[in-house]
Amino acid sequence: MAGGDRDDYTRFRTGLASVGGKLFSIGGGQNTVPVTTVEEYDPETQNWALRAPVASSRVSVAVGEALGKLYVLGGSSNVGETFPSPLTTVEEGTLPPTGSVLQIPTGDAVTAGNGQVTIRWNLVAGATSYNLYMASDINFDRSNYASLSDGAKLVSVTSPHTVAGLTNGKTYYFFVTAADTGRESEESFGSSATPTAPPGLLWRTKASMPTPRLEAGAAVVDGKVYVVGGFSGSALPATEEYDPVTDAWTTKADMLTARRSPVVTAVNNKIYAIGGMDYIDVNQVTYSYATEEFDPLTNTWNSKASMPVGNSVNPILGNRFIAGTAVNGKIYITVFNNGGAPPISSMFEYDPTSNTWDTNKSPVPFGNAQYTVASVGGKLYALTSGSFAEYTPATDTWIIRPSPPQTLSQMRLVAASGKNTLYAIGGYSTSDIHDIVQEYDPVSNIWTTQVSVPVPRHSTTMAEVGGKVYVFGGSLFPDFVNVGGAPTFVRPLPLSDVEESQ
What we know:
3 domains; single chain; four-stranded antiparallel beta sheet; mainly beta; Neuraminidase
């Protein structure tokens, strides 16, 4: 391949000649076959460069110089010494005039990262730009890269150059050429690298929750996690405090309104529980619009301005779902409402300081019944079973981002602010419950798969404290199973398990 490293050109029984202060190594054997390779060595720069190959493969060739030209004489067309195949052919090679050919870039070096590779090379005198060729096919070269699915030629690049958006675990090959107006050098010897995800999360089990639950919310104040609401046979008002330092739970005052799937987040050391549902029978759903504020110092809940009702809904599960989180001191609620035709997506902003709602925010650019939302780096991210988007509050704009490799129902999203990353954990597809952990890097815009949680689950609750991610409860059973081709809702099995990442 043109983009291999120099070991690809190791040969034996080559011909050698000195011309114009340069050494030329011609032909020779490579493994069990003769080759046509021609290499030039510059003693001043101590660099090798590939030159145009000879026409015939041969070993034990005689090489000479006369009047500035190279001559290749005889040799053998096979590498066997017992029964050689002598050649009588003579080939003549014309050396390019001094300065008429750009030198080949040397010193290729690559550094692999998470979904990316950085390539470095030495500068070439007289070159005004450089071209970087790449592909995952070891046999690629300038003649075929364009026909390969991931072959590419990046023009006018500078050293070092980073190529992002690559697949972790996949090997890529690179070579560089020097260029100026009308000229391009031969290919560098090239390098290869395999992008690799950073070490994944490691998990260990912590003290179980006093109340098994799924579809709860969680928020962090002063290094402690408050798990609020959820479902455990019925909608819960329960608030329980977890201290990661002591690995201990403390029961706190109940919410004023029992509910499952509330939005729970913290602003200015106060916890807010907004919206949610109360149901056991999926045909008798009561939607909550309550906003309640919890003060951990006084262990008290107080009512605040209710969330806007929006479009009317009927009591059938699936007509209204919400998710949300806090960004820069305000709380954003994404709303999916199936009461319209077509279904309506909305977004509301709640200001805890003024206790007011703003309903004139840009809606999520897709509709789905099962949002999960988290914020990192001053931006909000909304994930569904098939879509993923980023919201910037300062400009009130959404941008579609790539979905994770596995798109599942009832995944949950959590931010690890210290790492500036997001994790989508768990979920289910048909009747399969998953333990998958998928990490999103907003800088590289890349998802990677990390170490799974010990217990498969969906509809879990998560929080991050001190750089560690905590996973609380969830369910081992899907929301429904297909019976006779029709979805049949089942009673979930709430978990009390708690896992901590390391």
